[in-house]
Amino acid sequence: xxxxxxxxxxxxxxxxxxxxxxxxxxxxxxxxxxxxxxxxxxxxxxxxxxxxxxxxxxxxxxxxxxxxxxxxxxxxxxxxxxxxxxxxxxxxxxxxxxxxxxxxxxxxxxxxxxxxxxxxxxxxxxxxxxxxxxxxxxxxxxxxxxxxxxxxxxxxxxxxxxxxxxxxxxxxxxxxxxxxxxxxxxxxxxxxxxxxxx
Length: 198
Ligand SMILES: [Zn+2]
Known about the structure:
Helix content: 25-40%
CATH class: Alpha Beta
CATH topology: Metallo-beta-lactamase, Chain A
Radius of gyration: 15 Å
Oligomer: single chain
Structural class: alpha/beta
Strand content: 25-35%
Largest sheet: 6 strands, mixed
Number of strands: 10
Strand order of the largest sheet: 1-2-3-4-5-6
CATH superfamily: Ribonuclease Z/Hydroxyacylglutathione hydrolase-like
Number of helices: 5
Order of helices and strands: EEEHEHHEHEEEEEH
Bound molecules: zinc ion
Distance between the termini: 26 Å
Number of domains: 1
CATH architecture: 4-Layer Sandwich
């Protein structure tokens, strides 16, 4: 077993032309058979920036992209990785949230990140969805996805590596960032999400 687990901690603060909308924490796992990326970045060019980091540690391709939520930085880089052969997985509630908020997200990114910086960014939805949970294996690494939202967003999902005892929390946990309790957030559900995580 030669898996390696990485966190990509995007810049704190808001979305800017410099951070290309990647103001969040992402993760990736290098397995024997390819890379699994947790969340694809806020824009096509943001995805490219994440891919450059992945290439610093492995030549293996990104086989799967998991969207832990429906917020822009969780999925609007999907297209970049899909063009390169990745398969995208998300909960049904995440995909519904993405459809619902796409216009608002693109409008906000155009304003905050910039019209030039969002060139190439197109909505690309999951190839495969699940209702509450799913499990798959790549190489010798087990991945368990569990929808725990509504929390920060309606479909928030955890990605759990049982053998490593590592969880990718997406927007369920904020470290060094101010939690966004927004119109689509549910405080009560968020408490349940913490219970599920524990
Ligand atoms: Zn977020």
